[in-house]
Amino acid sequence: MKSRMSRIFTALLLLALIAGAVSAQETSEPDPRMVAVGSLSASNLYLSYLVLGTVADGYKTGSYNEVETRSIALETMFLNGNITDALADMIEADIIDPAESEVVNEMIRSYVVLDNMARALISFVENEDDNGELYQAIRMEAWNRISDLLDLE
Q1: Residues sharing a CB contact under 8 Å with residue 110, sequence separation 6 or more, in sequence order
Q2: Which of 2, 89, 112, 117 has the most crowded Cβ, counting Cβ within 10 A?
Q3: What's the pLDDT tens digit per position in 64-88?
Q4: Residue 151, by phi and psi: left (phi above 0), alpha (psi -120 to 50) or beta?
């Protein structure tokens, strides 16, 4: 577990450093604001994935009921929507160079997949005909995106 957390921290730090350069600044030092944005965004992607997966597993085992599961999924979507909007605003403001913009765009695309994962979870708990296959497929897609973005195994 410690080794996995160390890899996650290293990946978050690398992503933060990538997002740390500001196009308006010609300096070798990353902007601490951009490092913070990169670190928080990367961490939130990972934790949002864990929240949705944990809640889905908890629903399946009876730890969460339909109302709780739906509520947590909707809250996750709402919070991630705010982050997606803020990241998009950063790109529109043209305060980061194209290489960093691509990383931010990949983060935004990953948040969209997490929203799809939350919607599929809600469908699973609300619709008895939903066998959860769509949720599982989106869950795998989300993990593949996030693990690639954060350079995790």
Answers
A1: 45, 142, 145, 146, 149
A2: 117
A3: 999 999 999 999 999 999 999 999 9
A4: left
Give, rounded to a whole angstrom, the gap between the first and last alpha carbons of the chain: 13
Give the mean pLDDT of 32-58.
92
CA atoms within 13 A on the CB side of 143: 11
Which token pair is 112?
A: 């969209």
Cβ-based neighbours of 23, under 8 Å, separated by 6 or more: 94, 95, 96, 97
Compute the distance between CA of residue 147 and CA of residue 144 in angstroms, rounded to an integer. Answer: 5
Within 8 A by CB and 6+ apart from 12, the residues are 39, 42, 43, 46, 150
- Specify whether the CB–CB gap between 151 and 14 falls below 8 A: yes
